[in-house]
Specification:
Blueprint: H1 2-17, E1 23-29, E2 36-41, E3 51-55, E4 61-66, E5 74-75, E6 81-85, E7 95-100, E8 106-112, E9 129-130, E10 140-147, E11 153-158, E12 170-172, E13 182-191, E14 196-204, E15 209-217, E16 224-230, E17 234-236, E18 239-246, E19 253-262, E20 267-269, E21 273-276, E22 286-288, E23 295-299, E24 307-312, E25 318-324, E26 331-334, E27 341-349, E28 352-360
Length: 361
């Protein structure tokens, strides 16, 4: 039973990393006659090729609604768009919603009134964030708080739905963009031989500028200060060029932004840039495809130790175990003799464990 808990915790962590930033579900009303799903977006966000898929409480995908051409129902004073999405809840008391962007990346996966793991559809194998339950028709689940992104707010039940309008008790603060000084460029590059990320940016017109804080994130949501940099860098004509080498490389993605502080204390932010570390730089094995029909493949990472494979069914029972040599790429694992369903794969190299949900169709 402890193993099952660890596996499901990993899946939830994987899902949580994908949640948020500046496009997110903002209000859900699934009990009223006029069902409602509301999405909030940052100013000038393009939702072309984004879509929402509903799930029933068994994790089966139901309806998909395209967000291409979505028109805001209202706009907040700070420019955030409030969009009401025309969704019919086929199973209104329990279920889930998933938000997918134009790169087919899952931005958010939530469930209401139930714990939910998706069996098929865009969220196959992922566990939803259970945001709560409604008890009275006419009330709705709404985000409350102050901020600019999903993680700044909390779900609350309000007595009256306000779909299409900003939620009472919710304040969207201004998105600081662009920087008041002239940011000529801001770029980053992974240097394999030095195993570091080289960051460089150039500015002009720094009369009111005091200093930069370079911020870093692993998920594009939560940023931490990396280093403060004052205007004592390289002067190139009218440009000021700044450099920093980040040796704390994260796998697989590294996100950066600049926080610029004026002499009067005013703060603004740059756009976010990202650096992806090549997959072979990671020790983590790659498992694909998923979902599968009869087999899946494993590509080992940089770790040269042999892998120990263990496969568990949904009840946590061990059904397969074998040792895999690291020098075979890809390794093919045949599951044609197993029935359709959700399985949990554990790969162990040395003291490191890696977990993957496997969906067999």
């Amino acid at each position: 039973m402890l193993l099952r808990t660890t596996l499901f915790s990993f899946i939830f962590l994987w899902t949580s990393v994908l949640i948020g930033q500046s496009v997110f579900f903002n209000e859900i009303d699934y009990l009223s006659n006029n069902n409602c799903v509301e999405i909030a977006t940052a100013p000038d966000q393009d939702l072309t090729d984004w879509f929402v898929t509903t799930y029933d409480d068994n994790g089966i995908a139901q309806d998909t609604v395209s967000l291409t051409g979505a028109i805001p129902s209202s706009v907040t004073a700070t420019g955030y768009n409030i969009i009401e999405v025309d969704i019919v809840f086929l199973q209104p008391n329990t279920g889930g919603l998933i938000l997918v962007n134009d790169n087919d990346i899952i931005v958010q996966f939530i469930s209401y009134n139930t714990a939910l793991m998706a069996v098929d559809g865009p969220g196959a194998g992922l566990t939803a964030e259970n945001i709560g339950a409604l008890t009275v028709p006419g009330s709705s689940l709404q985000l409350q708080g102050t901020g600019t992104s999903y993680v700044d707010f909390e779900w609350q039940t309000l007595d009256q739905g306000t779909c299409g309008l900003a939620n009472p008790g919710q304040e969207f603060v201004s998105v600081a963009n662009p920087l008041p000084l002239d940011l000529i460029y801001f770029r980053a590059m992974y240097l394999k031989n030095q195993h570091c990320i080289h960051l460089e940016w150039a500015t002009s017109s720094e009369d009111k500028h005091d200093h930069f804080v370079l911020e870093k994130s692993s998920d594009e949501v939560l940023f931490e200060d990396l280093i403060s940099i004052y205007n004592d860098e390289i002067q190139t004509g009218e440009q000021t060029v700044y450099n920093h080498a980040d040796h704390s490389v994260l796998l697989p993605q590294n996100y950066y932004r600049l926080r610029q502080i004026d002499l009067d204390g005013h703060i603004t932010f740059s756009d976010i840039i990202s650096v992806e570390i090549p997959i072979l730089e990671s020790n983590r094995p790659i498992v694909y495809p998923n979902p599968i029909n009869d087999h899946f493949k494993i590509i080992s990472g940089n770790n040269r130790e042999a892998m120990r494979l263990r496969l568990f069914d949904r009840q946590g029972q061990l059904i397969r175990e074998k040792t895999l040599e690291h020098n075979i790429n890809p390794i093919i694992i045949d599951l044609s003799d197993l029935p359709s369903g959700i399985y949990h794969l554990q790969l162990r190299q040395g003291v490191q464990n890696y977990y993957y949900p496997i969906i067999k169709q």
